[in-house]
Write a structure and sequence with these properties.
By secondary structure, the protein is of the alpha+beta class. It is built from eleven helices and 52 strands. 17% of the residues lie in helices and 39% in strands. Strand 1 and strand 2 form a beta hairpin.
């Protein structure tokens, strides 16, 4: 009997399994176990001759355990992860080209393809290869190109030193003789390529050629001198000491300063309580600003046109819609250029505007689709059309703060891996050749190009976690801090002359208060920002977040605020939203050690016992405990949109709870119900039954009962009680900057839907955090009150700059 075909099949299968094992063991897939499971499932199904079943619905049911009602037309989790898998395979084979067979998943299919033959190189291609190149060895920072990290490319790029063959060296020598015009007798036919001998034979032709060469030489010398002068100027700016100077300190909050092209005026937005923000202009030699805009709505993020004759700014219509307005400085006329959409994060709501040097386009950020993350877009000023420049990767928060380089050829932007952590990327002005240029994974509060395009001025929590202005160059030099961190300096703007940096100096304080039986008590108050409070179930300990050390960390204290001690020491990466376990032995919270948000657990009795719950490369936020303490609910954008998941504390894979969107989930104290907030900013809270088994997904649509509908910024203003939930409603006046505003507290019975007014508290409360926490007895609650919220305009000046 001939067993050769069987042996070949077994060999083929063993080779495929060996390659699969190598792929799964690689760092590319170790950080994405979910994609590894998808690849394993597809390969095993194929090797088991079940390829006829490999459809989107089949994968959803068997691998992701989606319910029988799963419809891929409305739930994209399978194809989204398949696209991510294709990208990871490309990333793996970029560094492992010799691994065979090559496993690929073609777009539109879930059946693996195996390539056993390496890519061949034709003799024609071989003959056309360039001579070898030697690159000088220098330390380099890895750069991410089009989503792929290349360790061989750095932000410090040197021109390669070419090694030429003897023939090439001879050719160089011949052409050197040819352009030597000190003595015409040096020109010999033997020193010149044959095809040029006839041209050189004519004295007239040589005379013309000599003057042409002389002109070229003069041009080259002039260019070299200009480069040297530019280099010396750049070197002077990099080595110079900057001195700080306060420019404007008005009542309220001034921010987002932009210096005019001639360096003589400043445009900025000013929120003068209780009015919304408006655009103002102030000459540097004057003491008071002049209001430019007259709308009753909020206006922000001004930018000068390249010729200094116009200013573009944002007209804020809602938390999700913004207009780009162009106003003439000569006659005051205003024109709507475009409308932008985006609700999350806040820098997508009020994105930076950056004018191209030719004046034809404005680069900014916006969501092209209704549920897509923000990406960089270019606005054609003549037509108002939006051109997508970047596409934010799946799992990222968005591409924000677009900034055009001084020469107009590049666009830098902030790619947020997590809600409070990101890095700077650079792409061409058309969106090609995207590369990563910083690797801090820290909170960046604005950046701008240096005037000569050699680097950036960045407001970042890099280093010790204290926010400072940094000078980062693209030539690989060490980053240089420009401020001491005593003031939160953000949103820098460099003048075109390069001698002045405008920035916003923020000062914010918040306090934590307890209301019990109608009586209010101050718990935590100092000259820092304190937020996200929660009491342990026994009512003895308080956990909260504070930046009193410069960086945001978790703190724990007695209920009265005494005996406070620092619980975490991340020194830069943001921590957020702590939640006690029912037995008080653990605290779950958001951590960002790698940039994106993850769920961490810390033992309050022994903070050295801190670990990450899962290691997805997406963002996980808003952790909360099941009533029995055995599992944790959290929100993740793993599928491309925010959904609720649940994971056992003891280990195992997370299970999707929702498939049609969810932002935050809390389980009732008796374990019977799960309350889910749905929506971005505005939304509603629904209640669904808790399943009996951990691995049983829930169907929100079928069993959901709407408890309450909310306006904007409510996801951090509610909490569960024994009988339902309680929430803090913003002031009806919607003037969050008004210090004497009142905010209502309302309790809802989850069974009867009866609402009870629990009184009011003095506002305003800050936006964007968990600022409300109900206690188990349903009669007491904690809330965060806004204290000082100021923004002043400051300058960093070179010695030559004068106000």
């Amino acid at each position: 009997m001939d067993t050769a075909p069987l042996d070949m099949a077994q060999t083929r299968e063993s080779q495929i399994r060996a390659t699969l094992s190598a792929i799964l063991a690689s760092p590319v897939f170790q950080s994405s176990p979910g994609l590894g499971r998808l690849l394993t499932f597809l390969v095993e199904e194929d090797l088991s001759d079940r390829t006829a079943n490999l459809k989107e619905t089949y994968v959803g049911h068997l691998l992701y355990r989606l319910p029988a009602t799963y419809d891929p037309r409305f739930d994209s989790v399978v194809r989204v992860n398949a696209n991510r898998l294709r990208g990871r395979l490309l990333e793996y084979y970029a560094d492992n080209r010799t691994i065979l067979p090559r496993i690929t998943i073609r777009p539109g299919s879930y059946i693996p393809i195996y390539e056993f033959v390496p890519e061949s190189t034709s003799s024609e291609e071989t003959s056309d290869r360039q001579p070898p190149t030697t690159v000088q060895k220098v330390p380099m920072v890895p750069v991410e190109v089009d989503g792929q990290v290349d360790e061989n490319i750095g932000i410090s790029l040197l021109a390669p030193v070419e090694e030429h063959s003897s023939t090439e060296r001879d050719m160089q020598t011949h052409w050197t003789h040819k352009i030597s015009f000190a003595d015409n007798n040096l020109i010999h036919s033997s020193s010149v390529p044959e095809f040029a001998q006839n041209q050189i034979a004519s004295p007239t032709a040589w005379s013309v050629r000599r003057w042409a060469i002389l002109g070229v030489c003069i041009l080259v010398v002039g260019t070299i001198i200009a480069i040297l002068l530019s280099f010396e100027q750049r070197k002077a700016h990099q080595s110079a000491e900057w001195r700080a100077e306060l420019f404007s300190s008005l009542d309220g909050q001034e921010e987002f300063a932009a210096i005019s092209p001639d360096g003589l005026q400043l445009a900025f937005s000013w929120t003068a309580r209780p009015a919304p923000s408006h655009i103002y202009i102030q000459a540097l030699n004057e003491r008071s600003p002049k209001r430019l805009t007259s709308s009753n709505d909020g206006e922000s993020r001004p930018v000068w046109s390249p010729d200094g004759k116009s200013i573009a700014f944002l007209h804020v219509l809602s938390s999700e819609r913004t207009e780009v307005i162009l106003t003439s400085l000569s006659n005051g006329s205003q024109v709507k250029v475009a409308e932008l959409h985006g609700s999350y994060p806040w820098l997508c709501t009020i994105p930076r505007l950056s004018w191209a040097p030719d004046g034809k386009k404005i680069y900014t950020s916006g969501s092209i689709g209704t549920s897509e993350a923000c990406s960089v877009v270019a606005i054609d000023i003549a037509t108002g059309n939006l051109q997508p420049i970047t596409q934010s990767p799946l799992g990222s928060i968005g591409d924000l703060e677009a900034a055009v380089s001084p020469d107009g050829k590049q666009v830098a932007f902030l790619r947020n891996a997590g809600t409070l952590g990101g890095d700077i990327y650079v792409t061409s002005n058309e969106g090609s050749g995207t590369r990563r240029v910083t690797f801090d994974n820290r909170d960046i509060m604005g950046f701008c190009w240096m005037a000569d395009g050699s680097g950036f001025i960045v407001s970042s929590r890099r280093g010790d976690g204290v926010p400072k202005l940094w000078q980062l160059s693209l030539d690989g030099k060490a980053a240089k801090p420009l401020t001491d961190g005593l003031t939160l300096a953000a949103f820098p703007f460099v003048s075109q002359q390069g001698d002045r940096i405008a920035f916003t100096a923020y000062r914010t304080t918040t306090s934590i208060r307890q209301v019990s039986n109608g009586s209010e008590k101050l718990l935590i108050s100092d000259q820092s920002s304190n937020s996200t409070p929660q009491l342990s179930l026994d009512g003895k300990s308080l956990v909260y977040r504070s930046d009193r050390t410069g960086s945001f960390e978790l703190w724990i204290s007695n209920l009265d605020g005494q005996n406070g001690r620092q619980l975490t020491h991340f020194k830069g990466p943001m921590v957020n939203n702590p939640r006690w376990s029912p037995d008080g032995k653990w605290i779950a919270f958001e951590c960002r050690p790698q940039g994106q948000s993850s769920i961490c657990l810390v033992n309050p009795s022994d903070p050295s016992q801190t670990h990450v719950l899962n290691h997805w490369t997406s963002n996980e936020i808003f952790p909360s405990w099941s009533s029995d303490g055995h599992s944790i609910y959290f929100t993740s954008n793993y599928s491309g949109q925010w959904e609720i998941y649940r994971q056992a504390v003891a280990g195992g894979d997370p299970v999707a709870v929702t498939h049609d969107g969810g932002k935050r989930a809390l389980q009732s104290a008796d374990g019977r119900w799960l309350y889910i907030f749905r929506g971005e900013g505005a939304g509603d809270i629904v209640r669904i039954p808790t399943p009996d088994r951990l691995n049983l997904p829930m169907e929100v649509n079928k069993s959901a009962r709407t408890i309450s509908r909310f306006g904007p910024d409510m996801d951090g203003r509610w909490d569960i009680t024994q009988n339902g939930l309680m929430y803090l409603l913003p002031s009806a006046s919607n003037k969050s900057s008004e210090l004497d505003s009142k905010e209502q507290v309302v309790a809802i019975d989850g069974d009867t839907m009866v609402q009870q007014n629990m009184g009011s508290v003095a506002g305003p409360s800050p936006a964007g955090d968990l600022i409300f926490s109900a206690e188990a007895n349903s009669k007491s609650f904690l809330y965060v009150k806004q204290g000082v919220k100021e923004g002043d305009i400051g300058f960093l000046l070179l010695d030559s700059a004068r106000r």
